[in-house]
Amino acid sequence: MSLPKAELHLHIEGTLEPELAFELAARNGVSLPYADTEALREAYRFKDLQSFLNLYYELMAVLRTEQDFADLANAYLARAAAQGVRHAEIFFDPQAHLVRGVSLGTVVEGLWRALGSSEANHGISTKLIMCFLRDESADSALQTLRAATPYLDRITGVGLDSAEVGHPPVKFREVYEAAAALGLRRVAHAGEEGPPAYITEALDVLGVERVDHGLRCMEDPALVERLVRERIPLTLCPLSNVRLRTVDTLADHPLPAMLDAGLMCTVNSDDPAYFGGYVGDNFAALHASLGLTEDRLRELARNSFLASFLEDDEERRAR
Ligand code: HPA
Ligand code: ZN
Q1: Which of 6, 14, 64, 118 could form a disulfide with 304 if both were Cys (CB 3.0 to 4.6 A apart)?
Q2: Is residue 122 situated within a structural domain?
Q3: Separation of 313 CA from ligand 1 center, angstroms?
Q4: Entry's SUPFAM superfamilies (predicted)?
């Protein structure tokens, strides 16, 4: 689907395709516990979020140098451009690299090699969102925010990802307050596997402007009413939900009901190398499995620009 669109929920580490993983492993002398790309793809049968995260963190071992991060981002941008993406707000997980001895500077400078020339090379404007791992401590998140001080001119906002259940948003109140004081925009994953109460908490305690996933809001009619009233965008990821068993099949996805309820929905790819498709593939799958009409798809594409952190003049150029 080449409809012009913005992608607002995309983990750059989740764009690591098996072929690039093996190429980077060879380049960096890292050994992977898979014989080849086929054997690796065999491991892409997830039973829940955690089973995916285990592989996601394991494969990051191949990302070591600035050039690795640049190559990763360029590969994503080329694929995204081919699917109509004009603007991308890209998550990265600094703590997952810091623990492996890869500095924040390596990650940000590396990504910037690709993002800094993305408009010229791929016709895609970009923004970076630094995520905190919610299964790490609040103190670790604060230290990460402090370590990002030299790079704040390149970072638009903060997010919250990784294992959700048992790690409620309130755990990160302090770091989100500090991020807000620095002028950073705020988003958080909530209501993917976690309960609707986590969505409410992300809004009320963390002050998020957008909710990543937010799928489980549908279990709480009063919350749906609030999200509609306040026009809080949700960044849905349908193929991700199927692969991580949040929904049984795409045909069971609540997206049509969510649109009918008046929710401000957007469609995104999350971790496209792992979940069977990039954002255009998500749009195409919605059309094929849920019969979403062209008008509905256009509405979703329009929402993606409205829900973005683009300024008005930037948004006009991107569309
Ligand atoms: N959910 C939570 N954390 C993540 C995801 C996800 O889908 N992808 C990468 N980190
Ligand atoms: Zn995600």
Answers
A1: 6
A2: yes
A3: 31
A4: Metallo-dependent hydrolases
* H-helix or E-strand spanning residue 171: none
Q: How many domains does one find in the chain? A: 1
Atom number of ligand 1 nearest to Cα 93:
10
User: Residue 9, annotated ligand binder?
Assistant: yes
- What gap in Å lies between CA 217 and CA 59, rounded to an integer? 32
Which H helix or E strand runs over 313? helix 312-318
Instruction: Identify the active-site residue in 192, 225, 311, 315.
Output: 192
pTM of the model: 0.98
CATH code assigned at 268: 3.20.20.140
pLDDT tens for residues 153-185? Answer: 999 999 999 999 999 999 999 999 999 999 999
Residues 267-296: tens digit of each pLDDT? 999 999 999 999 999 999 999 999 999 999
Q: Tokens 């798809």: give the residue.
A: 297
The response to whether 161 counts as a known ligand-binding position is: no
Q: What is the pLDDT of residue 313?
A: 77
CA angle 149, 150, 151 (to 5 degrees): 90
Q: Whose CA is nearest to atom 2 of ligand 1?
A: 162
Q: Nearest ligand, CA of residue 271?
A: 1
